[in-house]
Amino acid sequence: MTAAPPPPTAVRAHVLIAVKDLDRAKTRLASRLDAERRTALVLAMLRDTLAAAGASEAVGEITVITPDRAVAAAAESAGAHWFPDRGGPGPDRLNAVLRSAAGAGGRGPVVALQGDLPCLTGRELTEALVAARPYRRAVVIDHHGTGTSALIVADPAEGLAPQFGPDSARRHIDSGATALAGHWPGLRLDVDTPDDLDAAAELGPGPATAEVLRTIGWRDPSRQC
């Protein structure tokens, strides 16, 4: 499926994707998957997210923020930039590294995007970016209704002002962001729990995630989104 092109005058966006150390990733799946399989799944979901973002005609640059060399290698192999996460521990680490990386882009919109969106399509991301253009800041709320799949800032000079963490959707809206109402099931479906992974397998993940799910025997997914 090809992405819908934006108007020719649009300035393309800089997408930021933050990914933590693989040994700390997706611990809520530990009841079903061991560390090796969780690592394979995280990298696969990142590859599918990067492929979808790269397929969006509204995206001009992608940067993956991570302290993990395996994640950095996956990003670079997909044609994305790597921004090293050298932040220390603390509850605001994710927001701090996003703020730092946001200042390293161009003059177009900045998007803080989750890296675990295996059903994301380039068309969905293009449509969300087009829908966000009238607003200074906008959010795509996740399928649970409490988290943030994407934070979109029209002008990087405004500052990203990320509020990721528990109940991030409400906190982004309270800080002035507008919630976008588009029907983008893949963009809204970030994967943290076994139920989320079941939903992704049902919706239809990208090829890298589908292959991992087949390998680990989760399901036999077919691409539907």
TrEMBL record:
Catalytic activity: phosphoenolpyruvate + GTP + H(+) = enolpyruvoyl-2-diphospho-5'-guanosine + diphosphate
Transmembrane segments: none
Name assigned to this protein: Phosphoenolpyruvate guanylyltransferase
Gene3D superfamilies per record: Spore Coat Polysaccharide Biosynthesis Protein SpsA, Chain A (3.90.550.10)
Keyword Kinase annotated: no
Source species taxonomy: Bacteria, Bacillati, Actinomycetota, Actinomycetes, Mycobacteriales
Originating species: Rhodococcus olei
Molecular function per GO: nucleotidyltransferase activity
Domain of life: Bacteria
UniProt keyword Nucleotidyltransferase, yes or no: yes
Function noted in UniProt: Guanylyltransferase that catalyzes the activation of phosphoenolpyruvate (PEP) as enolpyruvoyl-2-diphospho-5'-guanosine, via the condensation of PEP with GTP. It is involved in the biosynthesis of coenzyme F420, a hydride carrier cofactor.
Assigned EC number: 2.7.7.105
Entry-linked SUPFAM superfamilies: Nucleotide-diphospho-sugar transferases
Residues reported to bind phosphoenolpyruvate: 148, 165, 168
NCBIfam families associated with the record: F420_cofC
InterPro entries: CofC (IPR002835), Nucleotide-diphossugar_trans (IPR029044)
Pathway: Cofactor biosynthesis; coenzyme F420 biosynthesis
Enzyme class: transferase
Family membership: Belongs to the CofC family.
